[in-house]
Specification:
Blueprint lengths: L1 H30 L4 H9 L4 H10 L6 H13 L5 E2 L4 E2 H36 L4 H15 L2 H15 L17 H39 L2 H8 L4 H39 L4 H10 L3 H29 L7
Antiparallel strand pairs: 1-2
Helix pairs in contact: 1-12, 2-3, 5-6, 5-8, 5-10, 5-12, 6-8, 7-8, 7-10, 8-10, 9-10, 10-11, 10-12, 11-12
Length: 324
């Protein structure tokens, strides 16, 4: 009951925060330069004032700003994210079509980054001062300092162009018409490069944080007591040190789990991955306000959801933590 009450309270706060984000995003998008009606009229080759006025009236862009805000917020409350006047389709439909691809990419990248980060961080901490420790910390620093777009391009050049091991673009082979396990294998092959590119950056952060946190916990009194009792070093590392050192990593991972969707914009664009990150990139250049706001809304909701999940996970990792 205590956890249920905590979740209900957090959900209520999340709704309030999400509503504030919706309003803030609305004004920020409207403050951006450029009129979508002028862009559409220019592409149609009829950029006269009368045609622009017709487009503004058709899509409600000629209404006062407060009326546009009221209409949009009312739609969001009913989960109606509006209509994309550039793609002639519901924003909700467009996002739901692209969201599974983004969740697949970001979920795989998040799993890779967290797993490898904990593993390499624990190895470095258990061999502090050794060549292994130096190699892990150096690689982590290299992956963290390397721009995502450069790593993506170099991985395409090496593994696709030079070696020919993996496909460079898209989510599946065009025209292959694969089904069953063959389709799963094809998607997995396309997923390797973008997931590793995105995951290695965050892996570097988790590895360095795990290492420093484990070294800090290793000097605490309860760990020294376990050593004095003759507990096996592997058990001390796994049960006493890693379990207590992982909390800061989980905290950061919970925050970055939502942010990784934002990082996927660049990765999806370079690898032509058909997710909402690439959709947001296209909507930005097309001045598709409703679609941009819809993507921002979904991304913000995911961040808040991941933060809630992180708080609940705390209690399973460390029972001493109480949800209040």
């Amino acid at each position: 009951m205590q956890k249920l009450g905590f979740i209900v309270r957090r959900l209520f706060k999340a709704v309030v925060v999400l509503l504030a984000i919706v309003i803030l995003n609305f004004f920020l998008i409207r403050a951006a330069p450029g009129d979508p009606a002028q862009v559409m009229a220019g592409e149609a080759g009829a950029a006269d004032e009368k045609f622009i006025a017709q487009l503004q009236e058709q899509f409600g862009l000629n209404k006062p700003l407060h009326e546009q805000l009221a209409i949009y917020v009312g739609g969001v409350v009913t989960l109606d994210l509006g209509y994309s006047y550039r793609q002639n389709e519901s924003v909700t439909t467009l996002i739901l079509d692209r969201l599974p691809a983004t969740l697949l990419l970001t979920g795989t990248a998040f799993f890779i980054s967290l797993l490898l980060g904990l593993l390499f961080g624990a190895i470095a901490a258990s061999r502090v001062g050794s060549i292994t420790d130096t190699a892990v910390t150096s690689l982590a620093l290299l992956f963290y300092a390397t721009p995502l777009f450069w790593m993506a391009l170099m991985s395409i050049l090496l593994f696709s162009v030079v070696l020919g091991w993996l496909p460079a673009y898209g989510m599946e082979s065009i025209g292959a018409n694969l089904t069953g396990l063959a389709y799963v294998g094809d998607v997995a092959a396309h997923l390797v490069l973008p997931a590793m590119t995105l995951g290695l950056f965050f892996m570097a952060v988790y590895a360095r944080l795990t290492r420093s946190s484990m070294l800090e916990v290793a000097d605490m009194d309860f760990v020294k007591t376990a050593r004095a009792k003759g507990v096996h070093p592997a058990r001390i590392t796994r049960v006493h040190v890693l379990r207590n050192a992982v909390l800061p990593v989980i905290t950061l991972a919970g925050i970055q789990a939502g942010q990784i969707v934002g990082g996927a914009v660049l990765t999806e664009t370079v690898f032509a991955w058909p997710g909402i990150g690439r959709l947001m990139y296209e909507a930005l250049f097309q001045r598709d306000y409703n679609l941009l706001l819809g993507i921002f809304f979904v991304s913000s909701a995911m961040v808040l959801l991941f933060n809630l999940i992180t708080d609940v996970v705390y209690t399973f990792i460390d029972p001493r933590i109480e949800l209040k």
